[in-house]
DNA sequence: GTCAAGGCGTTCATCCGACGAAGCGCCGGC
DNA sequence: GCCGGCGCTTCGTCGGATGAACGCCTTGAC
């Protein structure tokens, strides 16, 4: 897969930078040296570095070399950057994503309820049926249905930027999501809250949709924090 | 500035793709042909295409050529992509950004009020002072203070992903922002609403902060829509 | 001693020609 | 008609040559 050399360069350097092995301001070795270290040609190094520059991770200037840019200029929502960052997901990062959902999803639910796209709102109801259908199934199935439900809400919100944020976050979060909503009997509890969201969106009740969604994501956040503290106590 | 050839390749092709001059699925010409058309060498073309691939706009496969990817895989929040997209800002796009703010900022204000970082919350109050100080100034000054205020809220929210979304949006939106909050006597009206946000954040009253911020951004959205319809009536 | 101008080395930017690898389709054998 | 191999196209990579920008250091004037 990663047979392409320049991809390897991107992954290798990108991961190092995001992991802070190469702090901001660090001057990278020259292209020739990098080529030697990574066992690739200069072309591959250059293409890789250009990709990283496109993601805002580095900056190259004639005769001045390539240096790592400050974190603020990084494309934090780039798929690769997210992956590198959440590769080893510490609880701090999980909490941050839980916070992000609390900030994002109620507003999305509100927009969804306000949407004039009836089909998209009906899709939320459909996704809700999926939740009911899988509550007794294996956890994996239920999680998939849960993801579909939340995504349907963002789709109904009718804002592709918002949807994009959700998708990126979900992709990065996906790996650890099972860990998130994994308790077996727990599924039922969240169903009622989800149902309220779906009903409110379908009925176009934006305030209710927002409140209900907040209950869902805050519940998830509290669940995560509790689980985390318990895990911390055990280990 | 854009003397670097590969940058020109990125800009040229990227803009075309985002503008949908090159629809998804389109097979780009051969590297050699592209090099000819853009009057650059094959290396420059390759570096440029690699950058675009890094942004998710295109996909290259050995011997199969380079083709434009579906919009869903684009990095919509990439600085370049946003700029290409909002280069000629149609009212539809402005409405979308206004919607996004409605979805985002209340949640951010809520998180800000919940934050334990007292200094960051005080910074919101400080930014509020800036608003009071510039209300009589030239519009440009006030707009700058307004941007600083909203950014301070996101900073206080303590979620760098959320802050990043805000910054990217603001950067893309910046060009047309003057158009947004440009009415002279209008500044005063929004001040009270902003003050409520600042006060609520400082006092840690998250529900109030959220509600007040919603009033601010919904006011801005309504303002924008009204202005737009009026402009539409004139033209 | 101070300062400025110009030469020089470093490093990225680009072009180019060569070769390798991977699909894809054509074409001949059966 | 089916199948396998061959060759063409196109991307992937290499590395040498050249150009351009920038910093540094020498050199010379005052």
UniProtKB/TrEMBL annotation, chains A, B:
Highest rank taxon of the organism: Bacteria
Domain HTH gntR-type intervals: 3-71
InterPro entries, A to Z: GntR_C (IPR011711), TF_FadR/GntR_C (IPR008920), Tscrpt_reg_HTH_GntR (IPR000524), WH-like_DNA-bd_sf (IPR036388), WH_DNA-bd_sf (IPR036390)
Membrane-traversing stretches: none
Keyword field: DNA-binding, Transcription, Transcription regulation
Listed name of the protein: FCD domain-containing protein
Source organism of this protein record: Nocardioides mangrovi
Source lineage: Bacteria, Bacillati, Actinomycetota, Actinomycetes, Propionibacteriales
